[in-house]
Design a protein that fits this description.
Distance between the termini: 131 Å
Number of domains: 1
Shape: elongated
Largest sheet: 5 strands, antiparallel
Helix content: 25-40%
Strand order of the largest sheet: 1-2-3-4-5
Structural class: alpha+beta
Strand content: 15-25%
Oligomer: single chain
Order of helices and strands: HEEEEEEEEE
Amino acid sequence: MLRTTNYVLRTNSRGLPAPRLRQAGMTMIEVIIWISVLSMILLALTTSLLYFYRVNKYTLEQASAVLSAQRGIEKVIRTIRETAYSSEGAFPIVSIGPDDFVFYADINTDPLIEKVSYSVSGTNLIEGITLATGDPPVYTGAEATSTLSDYVRNIAESVTTFRYYDVSGVEITNYAQWEKVRFVKVTLVVNIDPNKLPNQLTMSSSAALRNLK
């Protein structure tokens, strides 16, 4: 006797066979593959960044040092232009030298004039500020110092930081004649590592002492 089997074909409202629904979510194998691919991408990115940093480390540091020196020299020039007689009536210039310059200037627009010094010490460009205190004002307080620029190679390269000129534009080489100074040129030589290329960068700028004629 033959047995017959009846099959029921499920259809949708249009009479077409209903599609099988795929189970939602990811299988464990798919999750493992996804994590593996993501890990390889992150590893490749990290390796590339580390390689870029190693290759360009010196260039990035040199650029940072140059920017620091540029800001430092701009501040020095800006302050030199504001050279003025001290709050106690002293001549604007205190002393001059190849790598140091001491003078009076108004650096904060208050009623009193500050005593300012700029000098190269080792590989740093240093700013020193002494405030006028008391009545009558005197400059006996402690000097506050800060580093304006680092990696400065003026001393190692025998480059003069400050050059001074009189009213006629003649350079003053006798530093005892500080009262003749009317114009100052500032030069900074910057290099992170003198043993590596590129070579050091030399920056110069100048300023006239506006309050001295």
